Amino acid sequence: MLKKYSWLYVIMLVSLLGLVGLHSYFAYQDYQAKEYEYQQQVNLSFEEAVAAEKEARIDTFIAYTRSLFADSSKVEIRATYNEEKGRTHFSLKDTDADSPYTSLSYEHDKRKLNHLDSLNFEITLDYFMESVRSSLNLGTVYYWTQDLGKKMHDYLDSTFYDERLLGEIFQEKLNKRNIRSSFEIREVAEDSLEHPEIAETDFQTEAFQSEFPGRKVIPVIAIMKNPAREIFGRIKLTLIGAVLNLILVGLSFLFLLKVIFKQKKLSQIKDDFIDNITHELQTPIATLMAANEAMSTYHALEDPEKSKRYLSISNIELRRLSSMVDNILMSSIHNRSNMALKWERVDVQDLIKLCIFKNELKSDQQVKFELDLQEGPLELHTDKLHLQNILDNLIENAVKYNDAEIKIIKISSGEENGQVQITVTDNGNGIPEDQQEQIFEKFYRIPSDVGKAKGFGIGLYYIKTILEQLKGQINVQPAQARGTSFILSFPLDSHE
Ligand code: ADP
């Protein structure tokens, strides 16, 4: 069997392994694509966050600078319109200084001013702050006046990038991109950029410059903690699909193998059955032929004694043949699921007695029957012929599989909890516990009984199947000392 189907196992195994390989390959590809996408998103978020934190700091610096420029007790700002050049010139000086420090004009400023009222003062400060911002972005802070320049430089020298704020902005950017991994922000010394110490499972972003140009270089990186978990979350559906697919294919293969084994077992059983029955049929046929031949050839008919003997031999063999045919018929009849049943009221006690009587008539063995029947009639609505067959079979087996010197069969019947129970107990060879279910299978015989007692393994299968239609049940259990008990139970009101 194993050899015959080995190519099938190989194909199944190879295709299963192939499927596992393909799914793993696609899952790996998917993982890599998602990992790349994740890293891109994290890098972009961090770059945006670093720029936004820097911008926020510049805003604060500009607000501070503007307040310095607006303080007229410290700075004096004058406007003079130059007819020749067609522009307003602004000059700035510290109030305590003698001469202006800075003088400038804006090409696109079309105002003609010789005096700064409060509105024009604000507009002029806007122009100045734009200049401060763009020069800062180029890495320079001009000395507009001695005092202003010093204060602006002092301010910048005492403020650094705000890691907490950067973290908050980064978190916000990550949230927007649905990234939930936790992270840590680190400053890195420029020369150690190549080998930052991070766990193998973590992901490190590119380094971005957290300071304005011209200031001390502070590259920062973000370290994402164990991003694999999140990336796996993104390919969850692909993974679940692959696993389900593999489970389904594996299960179908298993099911297929089971069916093949079952079919093989059935065909083996059928072969055995045919061998068995051919062998069983040969003996009575040969005996009958010999008896007939003896009668016709050796003038046995003229000797009444001999004729009687041959006839009785023929009778016994014919009965054997008939019971074999009965058995085979039973096994094929009940295959039709809804065979016609003849429902009628049956007195169980009478039927048991009839079966015992029949057995005593045909059996040549010494059997002791012990009856424990409920007093009075015990009626059941059932099919009499089938119930009789069931009891006949059980009694036959109780005798057949019994090596005891004195074969004792105990039959009890009674009513219990709305059920009619009939128990047939023998003091026979017993049935091993691991075979108590198998004996009800078609053609099954306990291996040690094959060859010892005649049979086809049909009787108990027939009983089990017909009982399903009679709404009854059969259970088997070991008898107290030795032997087996078969317990039949029927609901009292079945088919009433
Ligand atoms: P058969 O008797 O024709 O072999 P059955 O279906 O009646 O078929 O029984 C199936 C098998 O169960 C028997 O071959 C026998 O091994 C075992 N068996 C049945 N009844 C008994 C019993 N009372 N005691 C021991 N073994 C039994």
Descriptive account of the structure:
The chain has 496 residues and is an alpha+beta fold. It contains 10 helices and 14 strands. It has a 5-stranded mixed sheet, with helices on one face. Strands 4, 5, 6 and 7 form a 4-stranded antiparallel sheet that branches. Strand 11 (407-416) and strand 12 (419-426) form a beta hairpin. Helix 1 crosses helix 5. The longest helix is centred in the first third of the chain and has 65 residues, at 6-70. 19% of the residues are buried.
Question: How far is the N terminus from the C terminus?
Answer: 50 Å
Provide the β-strand percentage band.
15-25%
Secondary-structure-based class equals alpha+beta
Calculate Rg over CA atoms: 52 Å
Uncertain segments: none
Arithmetic mean pLDDT:
88
* SSE order: HEEEHHHEEEEHHHEHEEHEEHEE
The percent of residues in helical segments reads 40-55%
Ligands bound, unique: adenosine-5'-diphosphate
- Order of strands, widest sheet: 9-11-12-14-13
What's the total number of strands? 14
Oligomeric state of the chains present here: single chain
If helices are DSSP runs of H or I spanning 4 or more residues, what is the number of helices? Answer: 10
How would you describe the shape? Answer: rod-shaped
Q: Report on the biggest sheet.
A: 5 strands, mixed
